[in-house]
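debug: dumping io for the single-chain case to check the tokenizer round-trip. Nothing else runs in this session.
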Amino acid sequence: MKKIQFFLIFLLISLLGFGQPDFNFNGITMSNGLPHNAVRSIIQDNQGFMWFGTDNGVCRFDGLHLKNYNITNDSTSIYVTGFALVDNKLYVGTGSGLYLLDLLTGGSQKLFGNEISCVISDITINSSDTSVWVATNGNGAFMLHNNQLKQYDFPEFRNDISSILAVNNGDILLCTNGRNQSFFLKKSGSADFKKLVVENLPKNVSVRNLYQDKQGKILLGAWDAGVWEVDKNYKAQLLFYQPNTVSHIHYLTEYSDNEYLICSDNGLLWFDSKSGKSHLWVRDNSNSTSLSNNFVYSVCKDREGGLWVGTFYGGVNYSKPQISRFKNFTSLPTANSLNGNVVSCFCEDSQHNIWIGTEDGGLNCMSAVDNKFSNYLSHVNIHALCCDGDILWIGTYSSGIIKFDIKSKKVKTHYEYPKFPDVSCYSIFKDSKGRIWCSSWTNLYQYEPENDSFKNIKPLGGIVYDIKEDNDGTLWIATQSSGLYCFCPDKYYFKQYVTSCDSSSISHNDVNSVYISPQNEIFVGTASGVCKYNRKDDNFTRLNLKLNKNEISCLFMKDSVLWISTPEGLAAYSDNRFQVFTTSDGLCSNLFQPKSGLLTQNNNIYFGSVNGFCTFEPNSFIINDIAPKVAITDVEVLGASLVSDTAVNYKNFISFGKDTNSISISYVALSYCMPDKNQYYVKLEGIDKDWVFLGTKSKYTIKDIEPGKYVFCVKASNNDGILGDETRLTLVIRSNPFLSRNAFVIYFLLFILVLLTLKYLLSRKNDDEVDIKKAVVKKPENINNPIVASNISVVESHENDNEFLEKITKLIDENITNTEMTSTFLAEQLGLSRSSLYAKIKQITDNTPSELIQQIRLQKAQQLLLKSKLRVNEVAYMVGFSNPSYFSKCFQKQFGVKPSEINQK
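debug: decoded output
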């Protein structure tokens, strides 16, 4: 199977640097499995898991599942105050001391319980030596380094430390708690802390949080006095303060360069230190995407750019990093809102205002200045719009054609039957020569301004949905049921294109839309896909979109990307690659309307749906280009988990018993933008030659495989099709010890001994019979002993097997250094098929060829280790193992002793 990678080739420009971020939140609470709704700390580990510290313990989230950890190893409820991560060890500050959660094993322990027994107020890591610094409420400060603990007392301040910071240069800065707050600094390399005076900082300022950004600036988060910046000489200046907006700062962090996030009792605040701009996100009961609670205690920006916010009463809030992709406008019960939701058509006037026709709310105009809406003709079902200077032509269902004055916002002329020869009009178009073309149910008309009437041009046999003009002045007319028409007005030349069994025809006779690019390329959207017109051959090429349903509503091209609306979402297509966006990507609906779309003069694209419309800028389109890591979360045998008490995602080797015939492996892509759109590929080395695409399935079951070693590989693509690296897990299925090679060697030797004993006894019996014959009567010499003949046949058969076994053993021994020696190699050398070789060796030894090769390698290794002073890794390479560590594991499993200890036995 080919490696599949989804990607878009359009220009990517991040919008985050041009204004405040736009956060829309989804909540995770106790109803979803969170152990408590108070979340004081959030961190992302090296693999990509999100960890939440709650008032009832630690919780891990992978995008699909929450897993709770009882770090106290009993039923005690414990609240978490902070996290710090060093490699695969998560230090957990709590209300009753410090704990360590080992991510490799899943085990936890309390650290220095006698020395650190009170509330942990803060934890930080000194990156220069990976020492852990802990601030407490009552025990002072501690340094943990190389399993040693050192305490720093501040008795004058009752050992009450509010925050501690490991500065980039190795210094340690802390501040005490209480009214007489003071700062202390321990210089890198010095033995103790010294009191520090922060100049210009008022005495009544109570600092609760110390933070250093990526540029090295130190910030102080004050309880009731805003945020202060401290320079390298520890002189403070006020950076941000809004006394009536933000109070009680719990935590602050950097969002991007010069942009910060403040967690407070009044919500989550963003501010730009350069521009001075700020924005506060709060709870809004009328908005389902607002914060769940205003008491914000923690915030974490993950590696994809997503934002995780911990609140005191509302659990965790998550905001995707890509919500600026689409802007949606729907009908809402507010003063400024679209009227009607079923959007059928668009038009742009000379002032760049957007006119929107709906089937259920009449005519809307969205102002280019402030995006405010105005509504007109609310009773009219509109299907076509066309701007002609200050005139807006409106085609309706059952109400003819309306001529609307854009300036006065009034109807100028209403063409109903018999002024317009039909009751409905689905398309109106103004060509390059200023001529107005329109349609009825089945006919094409031209408007004649000189007599204010409509001239019947030609019956087309179907409803005309769309009319476009190419660079040559030719009109291309899309119809329902009658295919596509090409019409040259000056020559009065018509040509019809319909579908046929020839793949170079259009794909369907229901044509919903036509798009003509600035380069004069013609694309046709039908009920069965997109077709591109080939001028040279006067035929069509059908694009391979691989959509579940190929009905095309509307299409436009920008920067070589074809944007296509369908009844199942919005697709972007380029160079035989495509990506589909749905409501999970922020669209207002997955069901888009036929020919309802607009590419504006400013290169914005609008698409109409049955639930309003969406608009976006293709040149500013943000994709998630972070390749996802995949973690293996569980391994089951017959439905029973083997790894319930360990962290399987950190393992790379699992051994199974001899009776294992069904293994289920669960895995997850650690991409949180849209977990339901992460897709997986798996391969079982030893069985599969190519990757197997599983779609969104996050569990794979392996059944009925022979004993041996296999490698399970899994990789995933994120919501935008970006493919990540593979994760590998070695699976070893042990064989029955009574069916092992050693057992069969013993069986074989015993069998030979029995045969030799039987032969000896038969020989003695024959000698006795000869003696009797000589003494009594000489019988005919040609009388055979059937028992002896049968035994000789058995001996000969087993002697042939023995010869074959000796031959293959010699062949393996001669090629023992070849790490690539496989059953295929043996079969070729012996002139046998792989199946014949497998059956022959299985019959003689009850081992597979691979097992026989490994056992002979290990026997040879044992001899070398006993007879020489070679090192273990040298012997491993001499007998064909490419990995000494794996050799040691196999050797110990085979002989019950490590290879390094062989000479000690």
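debug: round-trip ok. The longest helix spans residues 741-775.
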